[in-house]
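Supplementary material to the annual report.
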Amino acid sequence: MNDDTKILVEEFSAFYGENEVVKRMTLPVRRHEILALFGPAGGGKTTLLRSMNRLTDNTRHARHHGRILVDGKDIFAPEVDVVHLRRRVGMIFALPVPLPMSVYDNIAYGPRMSGIRARKRLDESVERSLNRAAMWDEMKDRLAESALHLSGGQQQRLSIARVLAMEPEVILLDEPTAALDPISTLKIEQMLLNLKAQCTVVIVPHNIQQAARLADHAAFVLMGELVEYSDGRKLFTTPGDKRTEDYITGRFG
Amino acid sequence: MTAEKQVRVWPRVVQRIAFALIWTAALATLMVLAFIVLYVLRLGLPHVDWRFLSRYPEAMGREGGILPAIVGTVVLTLAAVAVAAPLGIGAAVFLTEYTWESRVTRAVRFGAEALAGVPSIIYGLFGFIFFVTYLRMGWSILSGALTLAIMILPTIIRTAEEAILTVPRPYRDVSFGLGATRWQMVTSVVLPTALPGIVTGIILAIGRSVGETAAIIFTAGTALTMPTSLLSPARTMSVHFFVLAIEGISLEKAYATGAILILTTLLINVLANWLVVNAVRRHARRG
Amino acid sequence: MEGLRERLIARTLLVVACSVVLALAIITYFIFRAGLPIIFHLGLDDFLFSTRWMPADEGGSYGIGAMALGSLWVTLGALVVGVPLGVAVAVFSAELAPTWLANLIRPAIQLLAGIPSVIYGFVGLMVLVPWVRQHLGGPGLCVFTAAIVLGIMILPNIISISEDSLRAVPPAYRQGALALGATRWQTIWGVLIPAARSGIMASIILGMGRALGETMAVIMMIGNSLQVPRSLLDPATTLTSNIGLEMAYASGQHREALFATGVVLFAFIMILNLIANVVSRRRVQA
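Predicted assembly:
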């Protein structure tokens, strides 16, 4: 296995009951890159993403075959501590979900769950995360305010800062800008490009343009199957597969 | 032509009569409620004063106050809730967060439903034969509280479960996604968010305990003395009220005790409603 | 370490949840253990159908026939009062009431459910008993009085469950009927109530269980006379009120007989609950 591979999805299938939503996919995610998983809705992208930090554990009747390796280790192996895995692989959802508590407590949530109690360390962590999410200046005087009072764009950036506070190695994002205005979207895209320096990013983009703007590598997923995986620039300009081309040029989906 | 007209008119007449009856039924129900509350308060409150609340009864309750009965009610109720609340909330958390629908959950739900349907006199018989006699706890606050605890358990489970189910699903995903264990997720997100509903359930359970008579009279006894420990017998306000009324000891004191019971019931209901309304309002703001 | 703790917590919660089932099992076991022997000793027939209950007899006579009839009359009477009134209020609250009034009725019904049964019994005793004595004759302490007050006491059960099932009827039913030119009442009577009938049935059965099991209020109003009531204005006694009154001093075989009465009551209520359960489950499937 290549040393610059952070995650390797290997012969991976996911099922809900009898319904195979991810079909024998094999796909690498390279370190310090952004991988975009795109394709029509209902194609299994979200399931693949949720499998990468085993949130699918909490879904009834969800099963899988094959492996997902993070740093060469299968995350489904029995000795793996799922809580520890989730602290390394963070997840952002389509709709911003501020927990019903203050901005500060939202960001400090992850560190607290991993056992950090010292106020000073939490303070540092909150400030650092908000800085990395480029929102320290707008938030520093509102830390005690309820996160429910923030705007949608702020809430989603807060969600990202909240994940950053865990210092994750990988960040998974499921259409993070689906509910946001263009300016907030731009801010978040900029943030993701900056984040590459510290972590690996897997995103299900909101649309093809976003995929093209962000992706170092891209994977086209259609009805649970991986149709094409290649360099981002190449895939969006000269797709190798007819179906990819049809989708990109808007002939279906 | 007349036939057609009849077809059109007749349903309207029927509707008018039916609606009038329904309105009457609704207003009559409200009036019965108002009558019961006002009747007891009007005849009881004039006999309620600080001395009534703060003094010991004399001559079987014919004279003096109801202090021991107040203390008995409070202690018995608190003890019952102290036992039932952790069990009930724990069971609700188990049903909602720790398992899928299965034979076990069906058994637990069936058990809770069946317990909710058992009449209080059966609880009284059971408490007497099990706690008082078999476990040799005697007529005591402990026997009464344990009996009451089983009785209010279904209410607490049901309301806690309902409250927990209103906690948005994504909160759980976020919490897990941030590396929380299941128990951390429950204690840091689910329970705080569901708290108003859970507390409402506990308050309603308190109301049921305060008003209970049949289950207590054979388990906690009817001793009209100040309880000194969990093993002392005790008389609650409801039991005291019942004894005063049925043995014709003192109508005046019965009315006064009844007024206190009604006031307590009112207070509990207002509190529960206020919590619910507040929680709804908070949710609305959130959305 | 964390994993172990989590597993311990999960196991504890499982045990806690199962305590509900355990409690039900212990209650059933102890009630039956205390009551069954004497039923076998006397014979089920004699125990159920003999109307002679005389603990003072030589060897004691224990037949619950009279009380069972008393319970039956009082419960049916309570249903006659409570069902039409309760369903009407449910319809009112779900369909007719302006929002502000519906918002007033819900807490009012909750309050009605919260009033202690001794208060119901007492108000019945002070207000209704003298009225019945004066205007209808008899001692006033009778089946009629108890049934009316019990009918009011079961209102909250009937109203809340019926209202829920009325509200659960899909709006399309209502709009469909109205669109066909039915009046609102025709819609309620011909469409909504039939659609909600399993829920309404369940509420009635649960109300019946509540009426059958009520003790303190009945003791205060029924006169507690161990005879078979010949008319609604006769005093009588019920299974529950007899237990409630005599447990205070009974011992030996007498006490066993009271537990045996409890066994009969318990079995009846369990059957009612099961029926209600089946009836309302059918609603979910339909």
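The first strand of chain B starts at residue 57 and ends at 58.
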